[in-house]
Write a structure and sequence with these properties.
33% helix, 12 strands, two-stranded antiparallel ribbon, 9 helices, binds 2',3'- cyclic AMP, metal-binding, globular, Transferase(Phosphotransferase), domain 1
Length: 341
């Protein structure tokens, strides 16, 4: 493959969108010709959906092909799966571009299977990236920058996600499935919020009450979402607190030793996940504030982003990776049903 001819559309953090002719057209006009997509391989799949790596020709000016990720349905998916996908597309169309949110590049929905074309993020999902950094003996970060930068990299991941979510919430959108598995990492290590499958546009209501049934990401959900089916930006903030815990523990599973029913009982009686030993108090206090029972007492994403910025600028090592007690986060439960139950 000739690298000069391949362009991965991705903006570096804190920069305006790049001036690529197609990528800058308004999202409502991003219907893309299916025959200009060449599928290369599968990147991953779920029960009814799959994500493919593809080359798109004519998507940007000056490069012959662009590497993109294509979200589509697998054989056997039903009408409700297609309706969910269309809802996800409609929501993505309404979201302006932001460097910490995976960008919609186009769609092919005139015939089946429907395609949603998004930026390809070469480093995959954040959860796996965090876990891989463990198995490589922390060398992924340590060798490159020296051990003190490990904490800095992780803090930057947390800040990127907070910025992406501050933007999403400013657009009156509730994500409802914020977790490290739904954050993608670009080549330059910028984190981008992804997977709007459960997201809802709440332009006029601010609170979303779930009516349809389906598996739920219980371990990331706020108490009011679990108990009353109520979702707001403040419940996304709760999930962000869990994501912060995932970053600190290098991708461990939240509430490691608990089944969902026990977790719910304990949360109701005031229990919260304890401070990982290798995490500094300032960062743990931020998690705890995200998990306040009263949604209105939780910080906003804007506040979280500002506070993280301050912590980063202080330059202290907030996450001492060398001291992580891996074994306590490696609990595998019998009869575990996965992240969504
Ligand atoms: O870790 P991964 O490679 O990152 O495995 C999952 C898989 O597809 C199922 O979601 C990958 N994936 C999803 N969207 C993208 C994307 N935009 N760029 C690169 N990989 C993606 C995800």
């Amino acid at each position: 493959m000739n690298n000069k001819e391949i362009d991965v559309i991705s903006q570096p953090a804190n920069q305006e969108p790049r001036t690529a002719a197609y990528a800058n057209t308004p999202t409502s006009h991003k219907a893309f010709p299916r025959d200009q997509l060449k599928i290369i391989k599968e990147l991953g799949h779920g029960a009814f959906g799959q994500v493919l790596l593809a080359e798109a020709s004519g998507m940007t000016q000056g490069s012959k092909v662009t590497l993109v990720a294509v979200k589509t349905l697998k054989d056997g998916a039903g009408q409700s799966d297609k309706a969910d996908m269309m809802r996800e597309l409609d929501l993505m169309k309404k979201l302006p571009d932001h460097c910490n949110v995976v960008r919609l590049l186009g769609f092919c929905v005139e015939e089946d299977p429907p395609y949603i074309i998004v930026e390809y993020q070469s480093r995959g999902n954040l959860k796996d990236l965090l876990k891989d950094s463990r198995s490589k003996g922390r060398r992924v970060y340590g060798n490159r920058h020296g051990p003190s930068n490990t904490s800095k990299d992780l803090m930057k991941f947390a800040k990127d996600v907070a910025d992406g979510m501050a933007f999403i919430s400013s657009q009156r959108c509730i994500h409802r499935d914020l977790a490290a598995r739904n954050v993608l990492v670009a080549e330059d290590m910028t984190c981008k919020v992804s997977d709007f499958g459960l997201a809802r546009d709440v332009m006029n209501i601010r609170v979303y009450e779930r009516r349809s049934q389906g598996p739920l990401p219980m371990r990331w959900m706020a108490l009011e979402s679990i108990l009353d089916d109520v979702y707001t930006t403040a419940s996304d903030v709760w999930s962000y607190g869990v994501l912060l815990w995932e970053i600190v523990t290098l991708g461990a599973r939240p509430y490691p030793a608990m089944a969902p029913s026990e977790m719910i009982d304990k949360l109701q009686s005031g229990y919260r996940m304890p401070k990982p030993q290798h995490c500094q108090e300032e960062l743990y206090v931020m998690m705890l504030r995200c998990w306040y029972e009263n949604p209105e007492s939780r910080p906003t994403f804007k506040m979280i982003s500002k506070e993280l910025d301050k912590l980063i600028n202080k330059g202290k090592e907030y996450i001492s990776i060398a001291d992580i007690e891996e074994s306590i986060y490696e609990v595998v439960l019998k009869d575990d049903a996965g992240d969504k139950v």
